[in-house]
Specification:
The complex is a heterodimer of chains A (391) and B (160). Chain A has 391 residues and is α/β, with parallel strands linked by helices. Chain A has 15 helices and twelve strands. In chain A, strand 5, helix 9 and strand 6 form a beta-alpha-beta unit. Classes of the chains: A alpha/beta (391), B alpha+beta (160).
């Protein structure tokens, strides 16, 4: 009998499974659960996009594409990025189409990190950065961002985390789970810290299309001194409701993209062809659909934030992504305790803030990827729960 | 602001003024005033519920009836349409371009009831020179709302 614990990779075995798995399993199988727990849009992929995919399937366009992705798609990505975020890239040498934003992050980290290199990761944030850095032999250095700074990464926090071994800093904004965004002046402050160093930036901008209140999204790559050190990560999952299509991309200076493309070629070959064709339609023809979804998200965002505040929970205004991140500290419970009790007694699923790092303690993540009627019912039940635990 | 209120209400008429105010970042009193204004101006005609009668298992039959109308000097399309609109069986009345002149949507409990209505109330009108009745067999979408159960698209209840 093979003892797999001895045979399999130490790196793989020592990696902790996401602690939240058990809670998720319960929530996903429980009957009658009204959830605010998901990290993906409720809207279907716009019909035009699906139609394009169907057409290319019927036509039999199902071959490998070039490693870096369809030329046509690379050009559209570059046009879109310029149009939307005023960042300019060369479609032939500075774009890589990947299997979701996740692969792009993985490739960027692998292309940069040598054993022992430190990568700075602000938390609370999405869960993939630490494991990806470890897999590449790097050392994650966590910065616990603070509610009083709106969960932004500040220049002084960044400066304090930098050591001679710092290779890169990850900027996961707009933020899952906090809804925080980095505005231009915030990024300029960081750029001053990085000026004159060789520290690279991985800017995970998967929620870039989802910012509210007219602020808009600023990419670090639009700041002159940051462009040469930045890999922009983006994709189609959130803005175009295309999570299952698994399509993302990276934009970076040619020498970085060249290394990433080489790794991508060996690991992946190319991103799914059908999805790539569909993505061309997304970038070219779906501005109206995206605007409509955005205005719907905005209404929900305001209602959910107002709802939490009316229930007496402190809730900062989330300026990006599709999550509210209210504080439940006033209940005296830990985040996990709160979520578990709420699930069992009222069948409402929220995600404990600690799923996104220790600094998420005292907070819960509520997704507003749901209809207004659904959100209202969830808030009603949370209200009942808060009343009951007061007694 | 009125347009934005209407956009939300056409999607979900049950949003109250407080919720509308929150959704639009406005003051509740302002919303109440604007909604009231639109109601009294007749911009907002009413609030109705979209039902799936099939699920309700209630016997209802609807028909779309195309009318050919010959207007007369003192009794034009407008008068015909308004006259037809008075019947409680009539759901909608539209003046049309194209082959027919007026379309009437009629709802009744049975085929017989609808047929009787057409024969006894519509066909006999002097200005009406012809009718073509088409019964609705199944409804798939009404008021932008799909009536067929959307297939579960497999979205999990929780994910990161």
């Amino acid at each position: 009998m093979i003892d797999y614990n001895k045979v399999l990779s130490d790196t793989a075995l020592s990696m902790k499974p996401s602690g939240i798995r058990r809670f998720f399993d319960i929530a996903n199988t429980m009957e009658g659960v009204i959830s605010l727990g998901v990290g993906e849009p409720d809207f279907r992929t716009p019909y035009k996009i699906r139609k394009t995919a169907i057409r290319t399937l019927e036509r039999g366009s199902t071959r490998y594409t070039s490693n870096k992705g369809l030329d046509e798609l690379c050009r559209e990505i570059v046009n879109y990025s310029d149009r939307k975020y005023n960042i300019k890239y060369d479609p032939t040498s500075e774009v890589l189409v990947t299997v979701g934003g996740s692969e792009a992050i993985d490739m960027a980290v692998r292309a940069m990190v040598n054993a022992g290199d430190e990568v700075i990761i602000p938390e609370p944030s999405y869960v993939c950065y630490q494991p990806i850095v470890r897999l590449a032999g790097g050392v994650p250095v966590v910065i616990n961002t603070r509610a009083e700074n709106d969960f932004k990464l500040t220049a002084s926090e960044l400066r304090a985390a930098i050591t001679p071994r710092t290779k890169a800093v990850i900027l996961p904004y707009p933020s899952n789970p906090t809804g925080a965004i980095m505005e231009r002046e915030d990024l300029i402050a960081l750029s001053e810290v990085l000026l004159g160093t060789d520290i690279l930036v991985i800017s995970d901008e998967i929620y870039s299309e989802l910012t509210f209140g007219g602020v808009g999204h600023t990419s670090p790559a639009s700041i002159d001194s940051l462009r040469e050190r930045t890999v922009v990560i983006n994709g189609f999952s959130k803005a175009f409701s295309m999570t299952g299509w698994r399509l993302g991309y990276a934009l970076a200076p040619a020498p970085i993209i060249a290394q990433m493309t080489k790794l991508h070629q060996y690991a992946i070959m190319c991103a799914p062809t059908t999805s790539q064709y569909a993505a061309v339609t997304a970038l070219r023809d779906c501005e109206g659909e995206v605007a409509e979804m955005l205005s719907e998200y905005d209404a929900r965002r305001r209602i959910i934030v107002d709802g939490f505040r009316s229930l007496g929970l402190e809730c900062r205004e989330p300026k990006g992504a599709f999550y509210a991140f209210p504080s439940i500290a006033s209940t005296g419970m830990t985040s996990e305790e709160f979520c578990e009790k709420l699930l069992y007694s009222k069948r409402v699923a929220l995600v404990p803030g600690t799923a996104f790092g220790e600094s998420g303690e005292g907070f819960v993540r509520a997704s507003y990827c749901y209809s207004l009627a659904h959100i209202k019912e969830a808030l009603r039940r949370i209200g009942e729960f808060l009343e009951e635990i007061k007694k | 602001m009125k347009k934005r209120i209407l956009a939300l209400l056409t999607e979900n008429a049950r949003l109250n003024n407080k919720e509308l105010a929150a959704a639009l970042g406005a003051d509740e009193c302002e919303i109440a005033a604007l909604v009231g204004e639109m109601e009294s101006e007749g911009i907002i005609k009413g609030y109705r519920t979209v039902l799936d009668y099939e699920k309700l298992e209630e016997d209802t039959v609807s028909a779309i009836i195309e009318l050919k109308v010959t207007p007369e000097a003192d009794y034009g399309f407008e008068d015909v349409a308004k006259h037809i609109s008075q019947f409680s069986e009539v759901e909608s009345v539209y003046l049309m371009s194209g082959a027919c002149d007026i379309i009437v949507v009629v709802k009744g409990k049975s085929f017989r009831e609808v047929a009787t209505f057409v024969a006894e109330q519509l066909a006999v009108m002097e200005a009406v020179t012809g009718t073509a009745t088409q019964f609705i067999m199944r409804r798939y979408k009404e008021f932008f709302t799909p009536l067929y159960g959307e297939e579960d698209d497999g979205r999990a209840k929780v994910s990161l």
